[in-house]
Structures are given as structure tokens and as C-alpha cells.
Design brief:
The complex is a heterodimer of chains A (about 170) and B (about 110).
Chain A (H helix, E strand, L loop, with lengths): L11 H19 L7 H14 L1 H6 L1 H4 L12 H19 L15 H22 L3 H10 L3 H24 L2
Helix pairs in contact in A: 2-5, 7-8
Chain B lengths: L3 H4 L4 H22 L4 H9 L4 H22 L15 H19 L7
Helix pairs in contact in B: 3-5
The chains are: A mainly alpha (about 170), B mainly alpha (about 110).
Chain lengths: ~170, ~110
């Protein structure tokens, strides 16, 4: 792997136009854009249902994804995210970027880095429940159809990110 | 008239296959932009690499123009498409939390990629 050529990243504007065309195609065929975090609603609901079926069906947060469907995992956004994983992996391999690595600064241990990565991920998922969407489903697809909430969300994400970036950079490296 | 899901009454199998294929294309685009790498992503917030901003906004502008003109020429019926609902405070506060969590997830000191 080390000897293989690593191809450079694509021009971001070209990727952006490509994703934009993909969103148009998705709206034309299905009437929806792309999503990401929605996939985890179905996955979590089916896990909770497997452990405690009565509880899952009594709570709206889970039952929405369980009732009236054949199987919570047989859902477009779950399949789409499986596709994202396949596509990302394939692209990483053919571009010579596929490797196991903990990406971190020099002054921080692997464990600390992973704890922050994991807790950041937890908090993102938690926040995405409040906002009813993430950067794909809300900011990108919702932003394209001019949903006011999507634009508020996008602006807020940048405010949140920029406000702590300086501190995080010092503290976590 | 699009969305084709309603006008052609597309089968569930077709829609799931379509979701898989759009997912694969989306994943490849994201990886090709460098979004498989925290080092690349977090630089947005240090203002040393604006790739995230460029990708997101060129995607939105492209999709907006496409949807607008398809609707204008009567190809796409925008009354039938899904538009995300707005909840002002949850989306503002959730967005801020999402942004700082994103920073916690990806924060690394960055040599240029």
C-alpha cells in the first residue's frame, strides 16, 4: 500500500457540482434529497425493539420508525448510508488513501483523541435529533429547497465550530 | 412530471436500489473531496482549507438552480417534494452544539494535506 501512488483530492467546486447534480437527480426520482443521520433512527429503533419491544413501541421517538413498515432497516436512508460507506471505501482504495490510522496532533494520546472523537460524535447525533437533520439531510438537501430551518442550522453549525476551534486546537493537540 | 416516484409509481425495490446507487456516488464524492479525513475537515474551522465551504455551497447552488429551472419548465412539481420543516430554536441551538461537537470530533493539529 505504501508504494502505491496517492491521487490528489478533487477540486472542491467540481465535487460540489457533482453532489448538487446528485441531489437534483434524487429530487426528480424520489422527491427527496440525500440524508445521513436519518439512517441511525431506523438502526437505533430496531436495536431498541430487539431488546425491549414494548418500550420501543410505546415511545414516539422509536415507534415512528417501527410501525407501518415492513422492517425499519428496509428504508431508503439506511440503504443510502450503506451505499455511502461502500462508495467512500471504494474511493479511498482506488485513490491509494486506504489505511488504518488515528489522526491526531503530536501532544495527545490515541486514547484521549478517540475519547474526544467518540464524545464529539455522540454530541453530534444528540444535536441532530433536535434539529431533525444533519449536514446532509438538513443543511445540504433542505438548504437546496430553501428551508429556512436548514439555513438557520447551517449558520449555527459554523458559529458553533468557529467559536471553539481555537480552544480545541490548543487543548487537543 | 417528476418526482417520478409518484408519477410512474416506482417499485420499492427500484427505490431502494436507487438509494444504494446514489449513496455510493455520494460516498465517493465525499471521499474524493477529502472528507474521509478529519485533518482536512477541521481546517475549515482554522480557515486554512475552505474545501468544506466550497463543496457545500457549490452543491447547494447547483441543486437550487437545477430544482428551480426544472420546476420553471414544468418537469418537477415542487409541491410534491420534501421540504424540511423549520423549528427555529431547536435548529439554532442544535446547530451550535452540532458545530462545536464536530470540532471536538475532528480537532487535530494540521500539517497541510
Amino acid at each position: 500500500m505504501n508504494k502505491r501512488k496517492t491521487y490528489p483530492y478533487w477540486n472542491p467546486y467540481i465535487v460540489g457540482v457533482g453532489i448538487g447534480l446528485l441531489i437534483i437527480l434524487s429530487f426528480v426520482v424520489t422527491g427527496r434529497g440525500l440524508g445521513a443521520v436519518g439512517a441511525f433512527n431506523g438502526i437505533i429503533a430496531s436495536l431498541v425493539h430487539a431488546i425491549a419491544p414494548d418500550y420501543a413501541l410505546s415511545k414516539g421517538a422509536y415507534s415512528t420508525y417501527l410501525s407501518g413498515v415492513e422492517h425499519p432497516l428496509k428504508d431508503w436512508v439506511v440503504i443510502e448510508i450503506a451505499g455511502v460507506c461502500i462508495g467512500g471505501l471504494f474511493s479511498g482504495i482506488v485513490s491509494g488513501r486506504f489505511k488504518f490510522e488515528v489522526i491526531k496532533g503530536p501532544g495527545i494520546s490515541n486514547v484521549t483523541r478517540l475519547i474526544f472523537a467518540f464524545s464529539g460524535g455522540l454530541l453530534m447525533a444528540f444535536a441532530a435529533k433536535f434539529t431533525r437533520g444533519c449536514t446532509s439531510g438538513l443543511a445540504l438537501s433542505g438548504g437546496s429547497v430553501l428551508s429556512p430551518g436548514a439555513w438557520l442550522f447551517r449558520i449555527s453549525v459554523f458559529i458553533g465550530g468557529y467559536s471553539v476551534a481555537g480552544i480545541m486546537k490548543k487543548a487537543l493537540n | 412530471m417528476a418526482p417520478l416516484q409518484f408519477s410512474l409509481e416506482l417499485s420499492e425495490t427500484f427505490l431502494l436500489l436507487f438509494a444504494l446507487l446514489t449513496g455510493i456516488a455520494f460516498g465517493m464524492f465525499l471521499e474524493k473531496a477529502g472528507f474521509g479525513n478529519a485533518r482536512k475537515l477541521v481546517q475549515q474551522f482554522y480557515n486554512t482549507d475552505m474545501a468544506m465551504f466550497k463543496v457545500l455551497f457549490s452543491a447547494i447552488v447547483t441543486a437550487m438552480l437545477g430544482i428551480y429551472w426544472l420546476s420553471y419548465f414544468g418537469v418537477l412539481d415542487i409541491t410534491q417534494i420534501y421540504i424540511n420543516a423549520t423549528f427555529i430554536w431547536p435548529q439554532v441551538i442544535g446547530g451550535i452544539v452540532f458545530g462545536l461537537a464536530l470540532c471536538s470530533r475532528d480537532s487535530v493539529r494540521v500539517p497541510p494535506v
